[in-house]
Amino acid sequence: MTPKYANVSEREQEPPSLAISTVIFALRPDPETGRLSLWLPLVRRIRQPYRELWALPGGPLRPSESLQDAAARNLQDTTGLSPRYLEQLYAFGGPDRSPTPRVVSIVYWALVQPDEAALARQDENVDWFRADAVGTLAFDHNRIIDYALWRLRNKMEYGSIAYAFLGATFTLAQVREVYEAVLGRELDPANFRRQLQATQDIERTDSFLQGGRHRPPRLYRYTGPELQSDAFPPA
Amino acid sequence: MTPKYANVSEREQEPPSLAISTVIFALRPDPETGRLSLWLPLVRRIRQPYRELWALPGGPLRPSESLQDAAARNLQDTTGLSPRYLEQLYAFGGPDRSPTPRVVSIVYWALVQPDEAALARQDENVDWFRADAVGTLAFDHNRIIDYALWRLRNKMEYGSIAYAFLGATFTLAQVREVYEAVLGRELDPANFRRQLQATQDIERTDSFLQGGRHRPPRLYRYTGPELQSDAFPPA
DNA sequence: CCAAAAGTGTTAAACTTACACCCATGA
DNA sequence: TCATGGGTGTAAGTTTAACACTTTTGG
Lengths: 235, 235
Description:
5 helices; homodimer; alpha+beta; Arc Repressor Mutant, subunit A; 7-stranded mixed β-sheet
């Protein structure tokens, strides 16, 4: 048993404060290659510490809102989007992750659909970056993003989160593109399509996506369990 | 956008306080059937709210310790054991999980080896319970335990955490017993043994476990990646 | 008609699963 | 020597993975 306070200076420290941050992922085509890739919004810090550096969107927890609600609000404020998927990532709280007053951050990660062009919400202090090229960020935020990426890829391996990136209907090739963008490797179209169809999570519609350069692919609809639903993990 | 404060009473609330709690799992033989089952220690609350009810061990975060360290200390204090495995579980922070002042709890889960008989550390206010029969606990602690169990079983499916329950050497049948106790179903000994041997995580020793009633089984040693290592997930 | 993506078929290899069987020991 | 858990063998069923092949559209 250690004594209640190791020394006087500790006794006089304030209790650590709490903040909520969010890693928001969206897929958008790379302006150069045209292939889908992962992007996320960052905000520029306007005060010390780390003033002028980019950081994850975040803020304090309000008295009456749940952790999840705080994260969702966060996301709404910085992107204007509603999350299709929102889940707690991790609580970061090392005594040295922030200079001076200690901050414990509970971090959420979210997936949003980009097509709503709301990606356009950029200004001097909010911008989107490729997930694999964010530069040096404030605090331990690079580490946080790495972890979020790891978790995203993990979930992808055996999950239905892919649909959180897509609209109400989609082609099987689009689902494959999502997987390829997130996992960073190519997948066999033939086998992939069969694996998808083997899960009961999607259902074919009678529509086809017109306007492509070749044979129009059939559209499908997600019918599996509620994505993200709410508050709690058992995903 | 919601207004900054919904009403005056909210403005006057204190910021939520932070606590660390720990779900500590150990395997011990059931006093009746003799088969291994999951147990965890709980502490009796000595103050309101929920006075006299059993609850997860926990306490405040000290100024200079990391979240992980706080959880480890917690565990040391209540069981006298060091965790072989300790990982963050989830942060619980609904505005209504505790009457009156709001508390955000960052919960860890741990696996310990029971053989050190330190299970004996029981007194009026600390006792061990079967994980599937804890009764009604304080706060949302039943829910937390359910989630910890879910996560444990999940990790078990494709992981090497099983070894965290065992000593330096063990028989393959012991590993199987761990799996059976946690997953709650029987496994084919023949196939299970082969699957274990197929992973590179264990290595055979030249010793055999003597004293059984039948043919002495060979002892093995874990040689895979550090269990639990520290601070961070990428398990 | 041609290029290219959509979509189907086929087969070898890998991995599960179930269960028969032999082995070695304490009693 | 027998009962029992330790340990090996094996064959059917299922899943994965690679890739050839047919279909349908826009140009």
